Amino acid sequence: MTLKRNYFIISKWQSIYKCFSSRLFKNSFLIKLLDKLLGCMMVKYTELEEYRKQIHDINLKILSLLSERGYVEKKLHSIRENEGVINFDPIQEQMMLDLIVEKNEGPYSNQSIEQIFKEILKATLSLFEEDSQTLYVSRAKKSEDTVVSVNGELIGAGHPSFIFGPCSVESYEQTRKVAQAVKEKGLTFLRGGAFKPRTSPYDFQGLGLDGLKILKEVGTEFNLQIVSEIVSPDQLEFAIDYIDVIQIGARNMQNFELLKAAGRSRKPVLLKRGFAATIEEFLNAAEYIYSSGNHQIILCERGIRTFEKSTRNTLDITAVPILKRETHLPVIVDVTHSTGRKDLLLPAARAALAIGADGIMAEVHPNPKFAMSDAQQQMDLVEFDHFFKEIMDFSSGIIKKV
Ligand code: PEP
Ligand code: MN
User: Fold this and answer.
1) β-strand 359-363 against 189-191: which pairing, if any?
2) pTM strictly above 0.90
3) 391 exposure class (CB count in 10 Å sphere: 0-12, 13-18, 19+)
4) How far apart (Å, rounded) are the C-alpha atoms in residues 75 and 79?
5) CA distance readout (Å), 401 to 14, 321, 377, 394, 398
6) Atom of ligand 1 at shortest distance to CA of 249?
């Protein structure tokens, strides 16, 4: 518009000039003055146009640099994504802004420069917004199943895995008896709680480090992989050498510092669903571990709290196929804590395998009546034999049908 207007004004002046430069006014003072005036205007006009063109060219250069910056950010993003590292690093971004402001030579104020670059950062984040809303643990991010390897013992590889053992480690003899029964069945995992997060502070809290030592000794004797619950990040530091799988219990599913600490470790994590957690919250808890660098995660459905009182919790059986569809992680079912009833262990385990679970967890104690925790629902060794025979028959039936 301005360009057009300028042309219009100049052409007007030119026609006036033509008129006055006729023979009549030739060499007159007026025509000389007009001549000078028009000359000045033409110089000004071309100067203006020149600056406008320069600004236009600079704009295009800025645009092309912005595009280049965006493509470099995309490359950086894909590397970080492969490493499972969180994309936005506020400390790094602030350092970058500080450096830019330091190099600012004007004429824009530091505040303006900072604002401009903050907008660039925002635009960069929005490049990955869609991506960042998709969890790393989701199928959308990784379509093939994750198979967790615990020192070579696979979970999620197509055959059911079994994790049995006492609720709490109470003594060497008690733990050894269960381990022996587990080994006799050709199984490879032993569970046992050394740190027990109990509802009442007056209930048995576990043997702690002594319990871990028992687990380690028995695990080494029978070559069993040890699964044991850890309840705090500092505990993880010394417990890690005694266990093969870090269990994070229902009560700690949203203990984010613990999730992050487990994420920094290189041991597989068995994450139990909180008893009041939605599947979305469960997946986000797993995402904490995954995005902190540990991709070896086993999800465990262990029942949720409902109004129903006939079972200890309500086994959310359809959570299994939902989790299998939404994530690439293996999913197992804890039939002991979900039902809280011995008579339901087998039907619940059958249902879990039939609906697609990758494994079963259940508690076994040589003398459940005298167990220090969960006395009601732990199987004794005879019940364990029967349970295992039945579930193996059932699972071989499923595998044949598949
Ligand atoms: C356990 O497995 O020992 C346990 C305490 O289970 P949950 O965290 O599911 O209650
Ligand atoms: Mn228990």
Assistant:
1) unpaired
2) no
3) buried
4) 6
5) 95, 18, 31, 11, 5
6) 8
Write the residue with the smallest CA distance to atom 4 of ligand 1.
249
Task: Pick left, alpha or beta for residue 58 (phi over 0 → left; psi -120 to 50 → alpha; otherwise beta).
Answer: alpha
Inter-CA distances, 262 with 63, 233, 358, 377, Å: 44, 8, 22, 29
Does 255 have pLDDT greater than 80?
Answer: yes
Query: Tell me, what's the pLDDT at 44?
Result: 74
How far apart CA 204 and CA 198 sit, in angstroms, is: 7
Closest-lying ligand 1 atom to the alpha carbon of residue 197: 5
Ligand 1 center to residue 197 CA distance, Å?
A: 8
End-to-end CA distance of the chain: 74
pLDDT confidence of residue 89: 75
Tell me the chain's radius of gyration from C-alpha atoms. 36
Q: Write down the CATH number for the domain with range 148-401.
A: 3.20.20.70
Compute the average pLDDT of residues 345-372.
98
